Structures are given as structure tokens and as C-alpha cells.
Give the backbone structure.
Amino acid sequence: MYNIMSPKAEEFISDEEIRECLEYAQKNKHNEALIDEILNKARKMQGISHKEAIVLLDCDLEEKNQEIYRLAEQILWKPDCYVRTALSVQLLYKRLRILSISCEE
């Protein structure tokens, strides 16, 4: 049984949920209205779900990615912000991915 709040890995890690999230992100990675909605939610510091986060990670619209970076950096430096670690990981992942692509060329 999938339970995101469970301390037991077998309850909060669900292959079905992961596949649904990946499919959802693939379908919505160009959905500017949804991406804007997610970014507005993040801007208001309301928190975003794992499904919303993966849409932002999968987004390949350059203008939206720049907006994601700017917002992430703004949030990272807000005092008493609890999302620093997750956003740091996201930014690091994106930067490493960009570096690995440029190194392969």
C-alpha cells in the first residue's frame, strides 16, 4: 500500500507511483500553463509535490528552465528556508548533466 508518509521503504517507494510520475512528467514537460502554476506555488512557498517537481525537472523549455533556476536561487537564499537541500540537489543535478553533455562532445 502506497503511503508517502510511512517510515517503511516498502510503503513509500512504489514502482507504480514512480512510473505514473514519470509518465505524468513526460506528458506535461511542455505544458506551460501547468509549469507556471507549479512555479507560482513554489514562489508563494506553498511547497510542491513530487509529481510537480518531476515536471520541472523534465521541462526542456529553455525560457521556463531559466525561470526555474532564477526562482530556485531566490528560494535558496531566503532566510529560514527548509527547501534548500532539495533545490540544491536539483540545481547540482542540472549543472552536472549540462557539464557531462559538454564533456562528451
Observations:
- Helices lie at 9-12, 15-28, 32-43, 50-58, 62-76, 84-104.
- The chain has six helices and no strands.
- Residues 69 and 91 are 7 Å apart (CA to CA).
